[in-house]
Write a structure and sequence with these properties.
The structure is a homodimer of 425-residue chains. The first copy, chain A, is an alpha/beta fold. Chain A is 40% helix and 20% strand. Chain A has two domains: 235 residues, Aldehyde Dehydrogenase, Chain A, domain 1 (3-Layer(aba) Sandwich); 144 residues, Aldehyde Dehydrogenase, Chain A, domain 2 (3-Layer(aba) Sandwich), CATH 3.40.309. The N and C termini of chain A lie far apart (57 Å).
């Protein structure tokens, strides 16, 4: 399908794409690891070989980007460079090096009647992946889906269409080279927003939808999807500094959690401090933070201790700033810290700094977040940091997948039962 | 709330129940195994002690049942006897004996930077369980939910309201005895069907809905639910008898799969037979089946081999009969059998009878069903038979839980990270 033609009938276009994906997913489910790794390697090779072509396609998108109203930062994310392309290629090779999740025996036992029951990992089937303008995500997502045995339907941002078409061309060429169906990796070729709605109806063929983007995108997908959605909502992450915290350690962790990359979901948005350490700790840490340009929004009790701070509103304790802003609150004890977090956190990532074993234990058992961290930065909640090898997002759900989603999170399982004629009485 | 009063405002009633359940679930998430097992034991004790009371309440329901238009079979399912009550009490004791899934360390490792990352099992939170008239399900479901650390909202059939109230009274009394919140187990006291719709909107407080009943109930719940649903759709299960099958074994497996309990989801609905064994096998097995009253609906090729058979329609190969009816089709080879199953099966349970290793391997890898069985009856796809110890249903989903759902399937996990001051660079 050409890049400019909008399919006349979006419903039947979506249906055709999904049907082809489902058929491809059946072939992919029983493909060998060698075949899948062969595709990853071949794709990496072609990305390098055809980089001039890909960069030329990307230049078209970049040139058109101001017309789409993209900010300078967004245009930077859209832009492919030889280094970024090389890193996309290496990422595929890293995925190839990961163990194949498909066929993994999760557990197994022999029942008293002699039946051998094993639970074996299988792919989910077809992934519908919706994302925004970074074109290297096209390569990454396709790599993770195919390695985990899933066919993928990629729906990138309209601003990146030419880049995505060039990248998809390479991925598809590599599929042919290893004798896998081309429909293992499909790109939605229309930029019509209505197309997404048609895909979201096809729960009979699409196993899961993964939207990666702003809250409004995720909300739209959740409202319309008829299949499961792996959601990646906001991160309102906390650092709680306990009475017994090592002050130097706490300063480093708070500054890193807030400032190392403030625009991402696992950056801290709120600092909770035990009242007995507040008078010592807050002046020190807030000096560190202010020197890095952080705006400090303080509760009534903490305000007098924070030079340059201003009074926080209740809303500040429910906000994902994604910016150099930090809400600060003094709490009476670890119990109050846990209660604050259970009420205000988005259950993404919350950390405690403490040297007290009881406080650490209460915190890790009482805080119900995807990642609960003791004496380290919130920024560690990440597939790479946790050793998953690759990630397609960080789930804020508790159902199916929680926290970083790697290869395993894109799988299901089946029971395989080996008997010798057993019947049930 | 009294048994007869319909709450004036169903929306606020549902909201109050869900809020109480969520608060209780927080307490339950950190309850010890001793507390939960104490509740199970105390409940079992009270079920025995108060059996006269419970049976009297049940007698009211049974007397009123014909007025609800219940069939004799349905009234039998509704009826509690001393033996059935004793078995409900034992079931709770068996659940107490199972290992506590909460807190299980699923995996863990130390990252190169010294962070110890563990993945630990936690409860989902609040389960909304909708079921039909068997009152012992009230006890069973509550036991499984609480043991797995989840608060449960029970919505039983209106025909069983008095029985469920009596049983729920016992379960609640036992909660008090072990100092767990009464809202760990709540019963929806109104029989107004509209109440369900209000609960299905509360995805902020209810983690998962499990409907157990007919297809129309599940479809209604799926259409209205705003939270995940563990679905238990139909079982269109197959037995494929390969060329190399042991004929005697195959006869027993087919007869058991079809006849041992034809009204349940893991009973076989379709027999596929390799063409090279059909002339020998079909006359034998269909004689066995006919002697058990099974109606045989045959494809064109098998019809001449089946005395008393009649021609199958295409629809017969897509039907869950839940009755003594079997569709029969001859296939050319295991590949055709797999294709038939992948097209017609509901992906619940499918079996092969074979003595050929290659056929067995192709079947187990090519058939994507919750349970794929070699040389045993389809009837084994069951939580008890698989060693799960207790089950709240059999999921036909691939997302989150597949096949029998026991304690583990009602859990999520969180990452607990132990550091010593690490920050991200």
């Amino acid at each position: 399908m050409s890049s400019t033609a909008t399919p006349v009938n979006l419903a039947s276009y979506a249906s055709e794409v999904a049907t082809a994906a489902q058929a491809a997913s059946r072939a992919l489910a029983t493909a060998t690891g060698e075949q899948k790794n062969g595709w990853l390697g071949r794709s990496a090779e072609l990305l390098r070989k055809k980089s001039a072509e890909i960069l030329a396609a990307n230049a078209i998108d970049v040139a058109a980007a101001p017309g789409f109203g993209l900010s300078a930062a967004a245009i930077d994310r859209l832009k492919l460079t030889p280094a970024r392309l090389a890193s996309a290629a290496s990422a595929l090779e890293q995925i190839a090096a990961l163990p194949d999740p498909v066929g993994e025996v999760i557990e197994g036992s022999v029942r008293p009647n002699g039946l051998a029951v094993t639970r074996v990992r299988v792919p989910l089937g077809v992934v519908f992946f919706i994302y925004e303008s970074r074109p290297n995500v096209t390569v990454d997502a396709a790599g993770i889906c195919v390695k985990s045995g899933n066919a993928v339907i990629l729906r990138g941002g309209k601003e990146a269409l030419h880049s995505n078409q060039a990248l998809h061309g390479v991925l598809r060429e590599a599929l042919e080279a290893v004798d896998l169906p081309g429909a293992c990796v499909q790109l939605v070729e229309t930029t019509d927003r209505a197309a997404v709605g048609h895909f979201l109806k096809l729960h009979d063929r699409i196993s899961v939808t993964i939207p990666r983007g702003g809250k409004s995108l995720i909300e739209r997908v959740v409202a319309e999807a008829t299949m499961p959605v792996i959601k990646h909502y906001d991160g309102i992450c906390h650092v709680y500094v306990d009475r017994s915290a090592d002050v130097e350690m706490a300063r480093e962790i708070v500054v890193n959690s807030k400032c190392q990359r403030p625009g991402v979901c696992n950056a801290a948005e709120c600092l909770l401090v035990h009242r007995e350490i507040a008078a010592e700790f807050l002046p020190l840490v807030t000096r560190d933070l202010r020197s890095r340009g952080v705006e400090l929004r303080c509760c009534e009790r903490s305000l007098p201790l924070v030079a340059g701070g201003r009074a926080a509103s209740e809303l500040d304790f429910h906000t994902e700033f994604l910016d150099l802003i930090l809400a600060i609150r003094i709490v009476d004890d670890v119990g109050q810290a846990i209660n604050h977090i259970e009420t205000h956190s988005s259950h993404h990532t919350d950390a405690i700094v403490t040297s007290d074993l009881t406080s650490a234990g209460r915190f890790t058992s009482g805080v119900d977040s995807a990642a609960v961290i003791v004496n380290a930065s919130t920024r560690f909640n990440d597939g790479g940091e946790f050793g998953l090898g690759a990630e397609i997002g960080i789930s804020t759900d508790k159902f199916h997948a929680r926290g970083p989603c790697g290869l395993r999170e894109l799988t299901s399982y089946k029971y395989i039962v080996q008997g010798s004629g057993q019947v049930r009485s």
